[in-house]
Every structure is written in structure tokens, then in C-alpha cells.
Task: structure prediction
Amino acid sequence: MINRGLWSQLSCAAQLEPLSFGKFHTLKLELQMSANQLLDQSDYQRLAEFRYHLRGFLRFSERAASEMGLRPQQHQALLAIKGTPGGHITIGILAERLGIRHNSAVELIDRLIKNSLVERRQNPRDRREVLIDLTNRAERILAKLSLAHRNEVRKLAPLLIGLLAPFESSPRKSGLRKSRRRKRKASRTKAD
Result:
């Protein structure tokens, strides 16, 4: 059974705020675990299975891009340009969306321009800003790739939702339930 709350979160991704990869680099992993944050074997199995299917999806994506004559990063750039909220994308925003440096984004855009996939234009509201637009050729290629990706995601969605659903519950509640089970089990053994 598909968890509707999680499904609606996944299906409404376009309405979410864009992720900021720069922010992830400054996050510190907290390795302190309290009793209510313990992991059990099923957590490790779900995480491993989730990563396995993500890697499979990435391999699918790379092959699909290659069949259309694109490198994976070029496909990601076209998708970021088309899918960025607001519809106006600068090289700086593209760099952020792809998690790359500004100068790497400039080189990527230069290669895309040479392949007649994108065009630069000045922002009419701020002439200091350069916007990136897809060409008609890029729109056609991206539409084919995106259709294939959407179909692949639809196949994977029930599996991924099933893997993610147990993580949707609050860790505190989950930890309390496990703690209560251990206490009941311990009291039964004492009674025997």
C-alpha cells in the first residue's frame, strides 16, 4: 500500500524550495545518538536498498543521456535550466543546482552553446545579468529524455516509497516503541 503523504511529497517536488548544495557542505554530522535514535538491522537494510536503487536510476539516466548524444552532466544542465523555479536561470544558479563551481558551469555552458543546445542572453531587467535559455533542439532532446525518466521513476516509485515510509515516522516514537518492547520482553523473561 502506498503511503499517500509521502507520495504527495515526492510528486510535488516542483513546489518545494530548491536545494542548496552549498549549505550541505557546511552541515556537520552529529554522531551522538541517543537511545531514541538507535538503528536496527532493518534501517541499515532499507538504507542500503535505497542507495542501490538510486545508483540503478543514475546508471539508467547516464545510458539514456548517452543514447541521445549527451554526457550526463549536459543532460543534468538542460534539466536544471528547464526545471528551475521562476524560469530564469543564470550561470550562478546553474552552478548551485548542479553542485559545481561557477567556472565549471561557464565551461559547461560554453560546450552546450557549441552543440547548439543553449543560448546566452542579457536579462532585460538587469543588463549585468546573463540568462541561459534552451534551444529548440535542446527542448526536443530533453522532452524525450524526461519522458523516459518519468516512466522509470513511475516504475521505481512504489518500491522507493515502501523503503522510505518507515523513515517517515518520528524517531522518538519509533525509539519509544522499541524501548517499550524491550521492557515488556525483559519483564516476560523475569516472570518465567
